[in-house]
Design brief:
- By secondary structure, this protein is mainly alpha-helical.
- It has one domain.
- It is 68% helix and 2% strand.
- It has 14 helices and two strands, in the order ααααααααααααααββ.
- The protein has a two-stranded antiparallel ribbon.
- Helix 4 runs antiparallel to helix 5, helix 6 packs parallel to helix 11 and helix 7 packs across helix 8.
- About 10% of the residues have low confidence.
Length: 426
Amino acid sequence: MEHITLLLAIVVVTALVFDFTNGFHDTANAMATTISTGALKPKTAVAMSAVLNLVGAFLSVEVAKTISGGIINEEGIRTEVIFAALVGAILWNLLTWLLGLPSSSSHALFGGLIGAAVMSAGWSAVNGSTIVTKVLIPAVAAPLVAGLAAMAATRLTYKIKANPEAKATAKGYRAGQIASAGLVSLAHGTNDAQKTMGIITLALVTQGVVAPGSNPPLWVIVSAGVAIALGTYLGGWRIIRTMGKGLTDLQPQQGFAAQTSAATVILASSHLGFSLSTTQSCSGAVMGAGLGRKGGVVRWSTATRMFVAWGLTLPAAGLVGAAAEFLTKQGPWGIAATAVVLVGGSAVIWTLSRRQPVDHTNVTADDLDGNDSDSGTPGVVTTAIAAVTPPPAGTVAAVADDGLKTTIHAPGPNDPAAPPAPAAAV
């Protein structure tokens, strides 16, 4: 750790802050379905995920090498560029966390890095082929592959088991969910923790501390693993709520299928050095599992908001990163101003989040008051169908003036109130 300057120390600390936000932003990837189906208690789930994220950080460095030496050209990149990139990524992470949107922390980092590099040295600083093959193509393919795999696995599960609603079966699948959730957490550590390792290594390269193309030093691996584990333990409850209950209602069988499919995709990508979005992979798997069960539905209004956030992440983080780099280019006062913007923006977002706090006590409730009631307003389509659908045979729906509904059963043949039967013909 020789030759660590003040600026480099600031960049390293900022990178670990991003890693921390990555942890609580992406906890939902591994544990949302496990919590929503009741397989694990919320606090137990995030503690388990934190430990396995830490373990996963030590299993591979392929993704870190992609970040540190693949996306942008290391030559001519200043340390300030890394700082500006991290500012863009952190602010976008916090904003989407406030909105409860499971956007990609990975793409926020890539967007910030690309925007800051272009502002600093022009488009020549970016390796376009690497971005296409190892970022953009996986961004499209991963959720599709995970979703199709989860849908197929869910349908197969319900076909194999004639009575999937039995308590013994549900208990077995909950146990399977715990194992598969652990696998997703491990996979998340092998992919997302390495992105911060790559960023710190890139910053070390810009200062001449390590040679270009080097693997992350051990202290970088340890610090990145600890930071993402701490963030995971705090739990990104807002996003867990969206993933667990906002997209679809999952049964244990579906949760197991979704998590297993997502973990397989993430681990395969980590092995190949593809820096994909674990958020998109897990979200795609959850939607696939929702569609795989007969009668299952996906709440497309929530999914649409999520898709929009996915599409905006790269350019939005890139614009913030570029603006931050424009400030840092002005000298020490610009770097100080950028730091003030980061701290001030983070404080504002945190203050706004306290207006309607979400934590482990109400993360599985259907409203923020902690009530597990399904009292949401029906959509336009549902209301229209209900208006034209006759009541079931043998029932009459009565509506009082105050809007309360009741169901009055039609009298049977032996009911005293029933009208007399017509006389038989002679």
